[in-house]
Specification:
Strand content: 15-25%
CATH class: Alpha Beta
CATH architecture: 3-Layer(aba) Sandwich
Oligomer: single chain
Length: about 240
């Protein structure tokens, strides 16, 4: 039953994309948020949000989160749709790559150092349009027990645009305890990951919005402060 609902939801989203692209910014955000919330409902993933304020959700800022799963993007979009920076491989995923492009994802070719300048420029442009941009500076996903080392390059966009950095801690729990069932790691395939989540109903996605960081410093300092802020939540 869940699988059928998921397929219908994905097909419906694909059908709606031309409508999405024709909408104004606010209505587009509402549609993306609705898609994400519906997906979480189908997967039976509960959303728990801490310390998010209207100011957090409305101002242009660099959102920085630890990375556990493909699900992270939908959990964040269910709270407030933002522009994500994702590895270029995602753009080539069947169906999901098309959806990612439709929701204004910025793709980065991590193996090409020269691509960084273009990505930073696109991020700054989104800030100037009043948008928030979210990055996962670990550069890969983890089980979620701890935060891996951050890479500092993309923090430069916040420094250049003089927008705040908003650290967000992502945690997944089942019956009040840590769970790794959402972790999208190693050679796990997307369908395998979806099945694992559906086989463990009642997972809670916990998002903790932390104090914003002033970008009037350098990217290394911002990276370190964001890493420590998120790590402190995961350490409990």
């Amino acid at each position: 039953m869940k699988s059928s609902l998921l397929v219908i939801h994905i097909l419906w989203a694909l059908i709606q994309i031309p409508v999405l692209l024709a909408l104004g910014a606010q209505k587009r955000r509402s549609m993306i948020q609705s898609w994400a919330q519906r997906l979480l409902h189908i997967l039976d993933v509960k959303l728990e949000v801490h310390h998010a304020t209207d100011h957090h959700l409305r101002e242009p800022a660099l959102w920085v989160a630890n990375h556990i799963s493909w699900l992270d993007i939908h959990v964040i979009n269910a709270v407030s749709p933002v522009t994500f920076v994702a590895k270029s491989e995602v753009a080539r995923w069947p169906i999901f790559g098309y959806l990612a492009r439709a929701i204004d994802t910025i793709f980065i070719q991590r193996e090409r150092v020269t691509d960084l300048r273009r990505v930073l420029s696109e991020m700054v442009e989104r800030f100037r349009l009043g948008k928030a941009v979210c990055i996962f500076p670990e550069g890969t996903s983890s089980e979620g027990r701890e935060v891996l080392a951050f890479k500092s390059n993309l923090f430069q966009a916040a420094v250049s645009a003089k927008v705040p950095v908003l650290p967000i801690a992502i945690q997944y729990q089942l019956e009040g305890q840590f769970t790794s069932h959402t972790a999208f790691i190693g050679d796990m395939g997307l369908l395998e990951s979806i099945r694992l989540i559906m086989d463990h109903p009642g997972i809670t996605a916990r998002l903790t919005f932390l104090e914003t960081l002033d970008a009037s410093t350098n990217r290394q300092a911002l990276m370190s402060a964001a890493h420590e802020s998120i790590s402190s939540v995961l350490r409990g």
